[in-house]
């Protein structure tokens, strides 16, 4: 198995910088669209053969150094008694949980209801020649979907819940943390080589409230996962939270593009970094793209080790050939020549 990605997770520098992309399987890719025309998104996630095939597509087509399980961060919610749906304008979750009274609608996490995830992992580890990344949302990011009922711009309901019923919000976080921990441990048992926790919405909190309502639950997960696979933490809008994030014992920190990798390295004590090209740079002119890819590689070189990625998921308008060129450029890049 190609080991550049796992080496970099462990703080060892491989001979080239490993690269994969968040949301590397998706609608920007014609091969994905072809399958997606036949099945809705949830059916694809729940059918292990299809989920495995779609996971493999970017590995074969782009030549990336890691695969990420094809699924969604909202999948575990169905195993907690909520209904999830993916419509054109984004995900929908119901019934919403906005008060302590609503908490009764959240059931104990039933691992057997997401057995298709572990089946997909078992198929993939037999077929892949690169490591497989499992994932979950952070309990806080998952909470925003449960409270808002989907995506949100201002997170009014989430903040109203936090600041009017803090104790009940903590109860919601306890339940989601327990479920997330079980879910990640079972993915590791099924064979994933690394896991990434997506904290897409932690950046809506002030550093003070991140310390109260988000961080303790990540610490709890870290304490309970004793298996030795690398744990990656992706946080969007990281820059204002670095002073909090630095205390977390993740192996790799995945950054968004709004933060300078060199500044982040200082806060994070030069631990392994993943990231952080602005995904929309990929919609630009080729020479501008490669210039910025090179900048990220050079900045990433100040960390103990670096895994190239985007600062968020691949945008639907991205051209597959551009991504292929970026992967080749990264694989061929040598620091001695700079
Ligand atoms: O990265 C991968 O290739 C693995 C699969 C993956 C998906 N979602 C597939 C998906 C992963 C890791 C996710 C994580 C996810 N899902 C996050 C965290 C990362 C981030 O992007 O911030 C979030 C917030 C979600 C919730 C979600 N799922 C939204 C907001 C949407 C709608 C917007 C969109 O881009 O379509 C989804 C749908 C979704 N998840 C699709 C895919 C491939 C599109 C489904 C389709 O084909 O219609």
TrEMBL record:
Matching Pfam families: URO-D
Main enzyme class: lyase
GO molecular function ontology, one term from the record: uroporphyrinogen decarboxylase activity
Localisation per UniProt entry: Cytoplasm
Pathway(s) per entry: Porphyrin-containing compound metabolism; protoporphyrin-IX biosynthesis; coproporphyrinogen-III from 5-aminolevulinate: step 4/4
Catalytic activities: uroporphyrinogen III + 4 H(+) = coproporphyrinogen III + 4 CO2
Gene Ontology CC annotation, any one: cytosol
An annotated GO BP: protoporphyrinogen IX biosynthetic process
PROSITE patterns xrefs: UROD_1, UROD_2
Top-level taxon of the source organism: Bacteria
Entries under InterPro entries matching the protein: UROD/MetE-like_sf, Uroporphyrinogen_deCO2ase_HemE, Uroporphyrinogen_deCOase
Residues reported in the UniProt entry to bind substrate: 23-27, 72, 145, 200, 312
Quaternary structure annotation from Swiss-Prot or TrEMBL: Homodimer.
Function: Catalyzes the decarboxylation of four acetate groups of uroporphyrinogen-III to yield coproporphyrinogen-III.
NCBIfam families associated with the record: hemE
Name used for this protein in its record: Uroporphyrinogen decarboxylase
């Amino acid at each position: 198995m190609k080991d550049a990605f796992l080496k970099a997770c462990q703080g060892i520098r491989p001979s080239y910088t490993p690269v994969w992309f968040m949301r590397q399987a998706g609608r920007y890719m014609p091969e994905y669209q072809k399958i997606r025309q036949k099945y809705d998104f949830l059916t694809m996630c729940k059918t292990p053969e299809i989920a495995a095939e779609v996971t493999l597509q970017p590995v074969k087509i782009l030549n990336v150094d890691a695969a990420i399980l094809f699924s969604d961060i909202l999948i575990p919610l169905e195993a907690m008694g909520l209904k999830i749906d993916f419509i054109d304008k984004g995900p929908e979750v119901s019934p919403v949980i906005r008060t302590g009274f609503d908490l009764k609608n959240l059931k104990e996490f039933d691992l057997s209801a997401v057995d298709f995830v572990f089946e997909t992992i078992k198929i993939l580890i037999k077929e892949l020649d690169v490591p497989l990344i499992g994932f979950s949302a952070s309990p806080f990011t998952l909470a925003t979907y449960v409270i808002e009922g989907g995506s949100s711009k201002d997170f009014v309901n989430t903040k109203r819940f936090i600041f009017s019923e803090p104790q009940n919000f903590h109860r919601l976080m306890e339940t989601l943390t327990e479920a997330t921990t079980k879910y990640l441990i079972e993915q590791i048992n099924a064979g994933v080589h690394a896991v990434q926790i997506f904290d897409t919405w932690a950046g809506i909190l002030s550093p003070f409230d991140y310390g109260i309502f988000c961080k303790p639950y990540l610490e709890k997960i870290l304490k309970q996962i004793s298996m030795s696979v690398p744990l990656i933490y992706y946080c969007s809008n990281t820059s204002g939270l670095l002073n909090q994030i630095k205390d977390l014992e993740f192996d790799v920190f995945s950054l968004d593009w709004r933060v300078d990798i060199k500044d982040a390295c200082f806060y994070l004590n030069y631990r392994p970094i993943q990231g952080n090209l602005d995904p929309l740079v990929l919609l630009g002119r080729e020479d501008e793209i490669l210039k910025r890819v090179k900048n990220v590689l050079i900045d990433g070189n100040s960390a103990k080790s670096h895994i190239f990625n985007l600062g968020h998921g691949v945008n639907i308008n991205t051209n597959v050939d551009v991504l292929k060129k970026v992967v080749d450029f990264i694989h061929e890049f040598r620091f001695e020549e700079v």
